[in-house]
Design goal:
The structure is a homotetramer. Chain A is mainly beta. Chain A has two domains: about 1-80 and about 135-220, Jelly Rolls; about 230-300, Endonuclease I-creI. Chain A has helices at about 95-100, 245-265, 265-275, and strands at about 1-5, 15, 20-25, 30-35, 55-60, 65-75, 80-85, 110-115, 120-125, 135, 140-145, 155, 160, 160-165, 175-180, 185-195, 205-210, 210-220, 230, 235-240, 280, 290-295.
Chain lengths: ~300, ~300, ~300, ~300
């Protein structure tokens, strides 16, 4: 079944809030989402930041100990303009270099969105870049489920429940997996980026309102330790923590467990395969928790499991 | 001019050691190199670890304040077998998971090298991977120049002078740039890997003896702050430090400076371009210093500079 | 006014939960608290971990933008026995050393409490330490206020709102200051330690039930950036984050602001005074967020402000 | 035997340089030392930074696998004025706060030294601190031995061989222990601070020329893993690394080994004793490697070993 949903209120935390919609296992939801600052498709600010979320969506049958699979079907950009911060964040450069940076809270950058052409073009500010045109790569910056212990965690940050991961590998066609910690899983999504470099090092992607389309599936009695994902070429595990070392440790540990549990490998096979084949991507290194992604090419897994 | 060289002794530090060969600006050197443990093409251990280096090669005219460009022309594997450690390193997994890992100093993994087919095949140990065959991707794990202050720094680690970066993007066709800190630059190279996953998370690539071919060029009066590189698609800056956050800060800062100095960007243009276009790669997160690489696609730089 | 309170339910998050008691500015509360695992004064487990909190206590007049001062008057230990974990945590030792450690979840250590003598004596397990007797130093491991944005954050961790700081400098006689982010401040306390080494490196102090006595005072229109404290000899600022570097940065920044706002110093005076006089203490380096404390001796502040 | 020595040249690296003096096991050396920038007792700059070292001193009989004990007998300040940097370092504050800091390379602070009174008094710059007078606490900022592998490591940084630890607990009366990695140990010392706050957070102590008096003793066939020390009240282990977490891990691991090897404890006794009794001090968090010190009060060790 397909549900079309338009939020009347938004959340700045991922937590066990009253569900806005209840769906069955396997249903598809199409929901509008505001941008990171609460701007809607008309450019009106209808919610306050950080990263107002659409949801929570309650999935029947999802319970702690299960995994929620989220098939990202489409991230449609619903406005002709996106915005950015325009200066590198102070924490992504060497400390002494931070002193050389100008104020990063000046006027926002303005980018035109051409979904037909698949490009986004810089309009403001005027710099040596001129009207730089870049390929679109729409992604949700922040999505996830209610965390454990009844916690409610700010959408500025992320954790094992997902959240503000700002990973540009979460695009249409990807399935993301989240550990269910609350009845109904309670899924949230929003904060679309028309495009974003690795690391979100200026503190934003190209921030824009969106319409997200995704299916929610429950995998019963499957415990995972952190967010996972899968696309046509890779499986991947997502570590959300500070510093990057710890984010990488979480992602690496989760991939090791995945390969042992589902692909029949022991520690030696894991060490040999991961040691020579693994790839890492950087989600964000701007938010309170950073994001590192440990990826395994499926081509090397074909004869296993 | 092309120099063919066979070392009679090797160094375990990058420092201001007596040069083994003196070459002119632009010359090409073809040198044999032992593997990380000192094993030569016959498999005989003729040097002791860590990472015995061929060199130092003195380049006429190179002086502190210059940059040394190293055109990697070929990394030829000179042995039919490479070796690996077979268990994830304790520092790349969550601390509690480290306790579950078996001893990583058991028998080494053995990999057959088929340069004609371009593959490497796992022979030992016997695991669920069977005789896993992987594409070759030859790279020098450790190379660089004499560091500042007359220091001599272990080939286990890395810094602004290069060293044990273990970055699998340093392949034939790449030009690497090093800040010259000693007369003649004093270039060292060795520690070939037939292949290596991102992060060198089992503590080795597929370690093997090699013949390295490269040209050394001096760029006079060009000061760079850390290792840089360039291939057909990207320019990149390399940060070597702990933790990963700091390695990433160094790489990011160096890319910002590069774009400002050579491409005419100001801080706003840098923030806009890097924020939405930059890519990061992980070199190693095993050695005493970790390695993060900040990359900019050349396609976005075409109209600049 | 003095309120004596006995909780009927406990919270595992610091958040905007319904208040259990409403008090006036300046009132004193005496509340019973269970230990970190929910054990009460009789040793019965009446709540589940982590760190069940007594509270929240609503203070009339406290509003976002204010500071809550908490005068710790007494931490009375209400059981003859406390318990500990007995093995160093894996994350406080070098990663390769973690592999040598035994299972840390074996039988708990048992310590006798003698409040008259002011000592605690090791009863179990039997080791070369015999019946080691140590001075008591009672402290609340976890206390704080509701965080911003309506978040509810696990008592396993800490942040600018306080929480599980496990700092052994929070003893009777100290005043702690918290930034108010919710109406009434909503103060929580519990998790007494009869004693604890710096860093909480075995993962626990000597965990015990308690009766906490404290006064709550509202400082109107005083914004602080993180937890602060004061005792007879020092003022101090508390950074809660990972890694320790960032915890130290937060504490140092807060101390700098404090000296500038309340003692009339500029950046040069701050640099001179802090550079030559500051002291750091380590709270915990076990929990999800670590704690570093930046302290300034009051003797050097006498002629200022 | 007592040797009085005045260097004619200084080193900016700790490495296997030609010894300037050869002494017997147990001998005492009194050597003059320049300050961190090479200033001598007259205020003349006779060496260049960073941290020019007196030495190396060769101790007969010291060989790799031994430990060098250094009894710090006196650190005499030999100039009437010391100097400081006057602004917090950018890396010790939150990244966004670094932008608020003024240039830290302006005129140096000037401090009068009164060894008779035991105080140091701020003369320049003029701030709200006025002529702040502080107690003297003389210490060598940088000292240690030649590192392993024939390395030569900058005196800006530190490691298992010692170096620029900037720990204000290294005062007269302390014995420091270093792992010997080269024949004769090759001991270096210099970089006196008249006083320094924890963390060396403005980037300097009160920098001054000095006369250091110390005895060098060889402990044969005693392998230690990093710098250790001992005073009248504590034994301590010193971790030098980045980030602070890793410095603390090294110090903690070394203390655990010490207690097991010399005091007869097993992992449980270590966990119980260290968990409830250990103290941490911060050396520097300014240099390329940071320093954390893990201390155990001797009072709890009396009945052991």
């Amino acid at each position: 079944m397909i549900h079309t949903f338009n939020p009347t209120h938004y959340f700045n935390t991922l937590g066990s809030h009253p569900p806005v919609l209840r769906v069955s296992d396997g249903d598809t939801i199409i929901t509008s989402c505001v941008d990171a600052a609460g701007g809607d498709a008309k450019g009106d600010k209808i919610a306050s930041g950080p990263n107002p979320m659409s949801g929570p969506f309650f999935v029947d049958g999802a319970a702690p100990g299960d995994t929620l699979a989220v098939d990202l079907k489409a991230i449609r950009l619903t406005r002709a303009h996106g915005w950015t911060r325009n200066v590198l964040a102070q924490n992504v450069v060497e400390p002494h270099y931070a002193q050389e940076l100008p104020d990063r809270y000046g006027p926002k950058g303005v980018w035109q969105i051409d979904t037909a052409a698949g490009t986004t073009t810089l309009l403001e500010p005027k710099t040596a870049l001129g009207n730089l045109a870049l390929p679109l790569n729409p992604m949700p910056g922040c999505f996830g489920v209610a965390p454990a212990l009844g916690q409610a965690i700010s959408t500025e940050t992320s954790g094992r429940h997902g959240g503000n991961m700002d990973y540009n590998g979460f695009v249409a066609g990807v399935t993301a997996y989240f550990p269910v910690e609350a009845e109904g899983a309670l899924f949230f999504i929003g904060d679309a980026h028309a495009r974003q470099g690795d690391g979100e090092i200026s503190g934003t992607g190209i921030e824009i309102s969106s319409e997200m389309e995704f299916a929610l599936r429950v995998i019963k009695n499957k415990r995972i330790g952190t967010v996972r994902g899968e696309n046509s070429t890779h499986i991947f595990a997502v570590g959300n923590a500070r510093p990057l070392d710890e984010a990488a440790q979480i992602a690496t540990t989760e991939m090791s467990r995945w390969l042992m549990e589902d692909y029949g490998l022991d520690h030696f096979a894991v060490g040999l395969l991961m040691g020579q084949c693994v790839e890492y991507n950087l989600g964000n290194m701007f938010d309170p928790a950073y994001t590192m992604v440990c990826k395994m090419p499926k081509q090397f897994l074909k004869k296993l499991g």
